[in-house]
Q: What sequence folds into this?
């Protein structure tokens, strides 16, 4: 009989143990209401864009890969900015995300923790993308000669002058250039380094489409200028600049009696290959000389695990006294566009190391009731791109104060232990117990 009772008690103990699995207090997730989301190219915010935050941020969580094979189609690029500044140094305050499709679906992401952009695969492209508006992007820059009709149209365009002085375009100098995903295009004229209108290439530049570039000249300044036009018709005039070692900067250069011949013989800029574009003929020291204007494309590199780790560690070394999270805030209003993190509207947990405070929350136990809400009804944890909001309440006793946090998304209240409550108040010395 005694053995049977012991077996029954053991079985009850096992069953009760299975049913009393500890509930996680801290369950961080994306908080769309804390972010502004805008289309990077149009500089506009869709009315529903805030609801896309979770999908956009989650699309950047995959393992980094170093390259995409072949041509790709680039869709929208989005800029995410946290509505409130939570720290003087917060690499998680903004993120740029570009969606694209090649043989598979990809994202390119950039934020304060990356020295290079991070390329990653995703299973599916999000529903909110306009898949009919994608821009096809080659694996290397593609070039072709423009037409006389296009040069005539450019001559009649609004920015056909620079600083109030007319710019006359040279005939047969226009080219069309379609940029790849990333990289750089260097220009040289003779032995001097110059600046090409498209010098640094980023994924979100793809919306610019195929650019039209031509050369112009101002007789009074004796200076060459680039004419630049994007697919949507945006035009500009840019001075022809070269690097000056003495000044340590790019400066304008004079070409007296300049004549230009286009000598482009290829339709691609292969990585590391110096490609002739023009021949400049001009008067130098009383004699006419010729110099070759060439372009060299350098393929861009995407972030790797090691480079991301190095960038993160460099940020920690450069800013050792600035907290990087997790952050704990007590606040009177939600952390949205109207919120301020200034005292006394918001209190931030003191110090840099939040491990003891985080443990106090993780060790809290679920309870059936909460306390009384005080001056700061809300508590928010922010760690990286995720966070969690609680309702904060207290219950005063004769010798201590109990601390309760309620996760309203789960309709569940948790009570900090006595030691956890002491830890909580030690991190918020300005909070009146």
A:
């Amino acid at each position: 009989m005694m053995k049977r009772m012991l077996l029954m008690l053991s079985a009850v103990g096992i069953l009760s143990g299975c049913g009393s699995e500890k509930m996680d207090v801290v369950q961080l997730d994306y908080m769309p209401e804390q972010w502004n989301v805008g289309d990077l190219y149009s500089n506009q915010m869709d009315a529903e864009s805030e609801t896309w935050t979770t999908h956009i941020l989650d699309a950047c969580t995959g393992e980094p890969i170093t390259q995409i094979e072949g041509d790709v189609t680039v869709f929208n690029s989005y800029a995410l900015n946290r509505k409130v500044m939570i720290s003087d140094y917060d690499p998680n305050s903004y993120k740029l995300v570009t969606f694209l499709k090649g043989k598979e679906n990809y994202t390119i992401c950039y934020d304060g923790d990356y020295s290079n952009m991070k390329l990653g695969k995703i299973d599916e492209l999000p529903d909110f993308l306009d898949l009919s508006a994608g821009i096809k992007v080659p694996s290397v820059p593609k070039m072709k000669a423009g037409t006389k009709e296009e040069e005539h149209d450019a001559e009649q365009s609004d920015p056909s002058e620079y600083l109030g002085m007319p710019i006359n375009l040279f005939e047969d100098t226009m080219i069309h250039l379609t940029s790849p995903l990333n990289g750089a295009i260097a220009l040289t004229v003779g032995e001097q380094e110059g600046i090409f209108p498209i010098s640094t290439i980023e994924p979100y530049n793809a919306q610019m489409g195929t650019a039209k570039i031509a050369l112009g000249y101002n007789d009074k300044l004796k200076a060459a200028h680039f004419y630049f036009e994007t697919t949507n018709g945006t035009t500009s005039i840019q001075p022809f600049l070269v690097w000056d070692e003495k000044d340590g900067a790019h400066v304008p250069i004079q070409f007296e009696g300049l004549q230009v011949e286009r000598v482009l013989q290829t339709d691609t800029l292969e990585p590391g290959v110096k490609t002739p574009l023009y021949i400049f003929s001009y008067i130098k020291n009383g004699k006419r000389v010729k110099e070759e204007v060439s372009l060299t494309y350098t393929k861009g590199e995407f972030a790797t695990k090691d480079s991301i780790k190095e960038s993160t560690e460099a940020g920690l070394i450069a800013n050792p006294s600035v907290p990087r999270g997790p952050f704990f805030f007590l606040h009177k209003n939600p952390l949205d566009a109207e919120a301020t993190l200034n005292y006394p509207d918001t209190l931030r947990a003191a110090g840099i190391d939040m491990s003891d405070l985080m443990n106090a929350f993780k060790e809290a136990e679920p309870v059936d009731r909460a306390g009384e809400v005080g001056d700061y009804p809300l508590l928010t944890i922010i760690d990286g791109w995720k966070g969690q909001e609680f309702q904060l309440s207290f219950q005063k006793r004769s010798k201590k104060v109990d601390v309760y946090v309620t996760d309203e998304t789960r309709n569940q209240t948790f009570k900090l232990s006595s030691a956890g409550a002491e830890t909580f108040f030690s991190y918020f010395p300005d909070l009146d117990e």
